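can u pls check wat happens w/ zinc ion
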Amino acid sequence: MRKNQCRICNIKTNHEVVHEEKIHGSEEDGSFQWKDTYSIIRCKGCDNLSFLNIYGNTDMYYINDSDEQNFTLQNRNFLNFYKLGKKLFT
Ligand SMILES: [Zn+2]
């Protein structure tokens, strides 16, 4: 279960993953790696379906103040389907 912003509820709500595809790859020498996750998620509050894309690669690592390696993920919730079937691009 993950919390995502729901455009209908207008707050972060619990979402269930209806379907998920993960693709990943790297340069041949392994110096650059990337991971792309595409999910169809459903709000547990209003049953609205959304499309979520999370992308990350090795250039997005950063070291925080405690010397820990962190990973910034790009989290795009860019397509929402309303119950009526209308599409909304953000
Ligand atoms: Zn909702």
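The beta strands are 2-5, 12-26, 33-43, 49-57, 61-63, 69-71, 74-81, 87-89.
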